[in-house]
From TrEMBL:
Name of the protein in its database record: Carboxypeptidase
Family of the protein in this entry: Belongs to the peptidase S10 family.
Signal peptide (UniProt feature, chain positions): 1-36
Native source species: Triticum aestivum (Wheat)
PANTHER family reported in the protein's UniProt record: CARBOXYPEPTIDASE, SERINE PROTEASE FAMILY S10 SERINE CARBOXYPEPTIDASE
Keyword set, alphabetical order: Carboxypeptidase, Glycoprotein, Hydrolase, Protease, Signal, Zymogen
Family annotation (InterPro entries): AB_hydrolase_fold, Peptidase_S10, Ser_caboxypep_his_AS, Ser_caboxypep_ser_AS
Amino acid sequence: MSVKLLRTPTAGQHHQPLLQLVPGLLLVLLSCSASASTVVTHLPGFDGPLPFYLETGYVGVEEETGTELFYYFAESERSPGTDPVILWLTGGARCSGFTGFAFEVGPVKYVLAPYTGGLPQLVHNPLSWTKMASIIFLDSPACSGFSYARDPKGCDVGDYSSSLQVQRFLNKWFTDHPQYLSNPFYLGGESYAGKVIPLMAQYISQGTEKRDQPLINLKGYLIGNPVADPKFDTNFRVEGAHGFGIVSDQIYEAAMKNCKGNYVIPQNQLCAEVLETVDSLISEIADGHVLYKKCDFTTPKPIDDATRRKFLLEESIEPNDAPGRPTVDCFTYGYYLAYFWMNNKMTRDALGIKWGTVGEWVRCNKEFPYTHDMPSSILYHLNLTTRGYRALVYSGDHDLLVPQLSTQAWIRSLNFSIIDDWRAWHLDGQAAGFTVAYANNLTFATVKGGGHTAPEYQPEESFAMARRWLDNEPL
């Protein structure tokens, strides 16, 4: 494998973005290094060398706007020559693939200790899915995480355009990494990524049928708490809230009577009023996991330009520069730590981040437009599974953002016959969730106690589920 190391400025050098200094030079530098990669052996805050192979890098996906997608590739710790390769995408849209790397299914996790400045600490995740698969964690769509575009217009993407960019990314990545072409390949992801993954799989399968090079060995996809279609996702929030005891019988009956099953767009005033009541009640709880405390999801960020300059020039931001600090026992505290770790100069150097491309890293970037131009993914699920691709759809059963009720409903709408009826699946002699297997290689499973997203809340159960499915064993 050819490796090109990209070095960011050392401690004494000025970190003002190149765009403000020598824009012409920046264009030359970036266009010359569109497939640059770095082998990472140590990470700041991680004690000792990494116990797994990690590569980071950029792949150019659109020449006109100079769009490059950034990735983290963690090789399987089991048998990289034969284990599956998974492209892992995070929701948002526009949340960094680092979310998957450090919070969902990846090989590291943060030590959840009160932040007092400096570098947060990382440790190896013993329940990483890289124990049975090699995983590419991708900052997609464009301008998420460390992905960038020289022309700001390159950040303006949507479901279809970003999915085509992912296909281009994979074609180039596998061209540069031909040793993994024969491995089984899967697309995986959570939340909004679950909506576009079937579209991406469609593009990849069409490329294979046309004998495009490289021939990616697509076997299927696995998606958790996936967005699919508002007719299902939004409608079942009301029923889910009633089932969790958040909405009373009377309010639920009023909603059914006045909305007549359509909770997406109220058709009359009485429906609008009862849905307002439902929304108000849901706002009292954490809808990502109804049993957890409500915590601050706000991305901490510097409060003025002077602070921004300081964080670019010094080692890290002082904690009082970051509003919206959750308490250590909050589910979101790790996200808070990630902000300081990612905006530390040593981290940028270790990851091989191109100087001048991304100033401030935020986990979920809401600054750029994103077009939700694909109304539903259900037809893509139908097309892929009937053509033989495997699919695992799973839901944390305490999620009210995308309730498992809605996921079950759109799966039933496919009208596939059941080949293994609803039953518990087990871990250590206990029910870890419930599952049903359909014809056309489609499996649905719940993860007991899981939220949005399941591996973040129930890593042990999610690990067992994924390992069995990837190894073609029954759950």
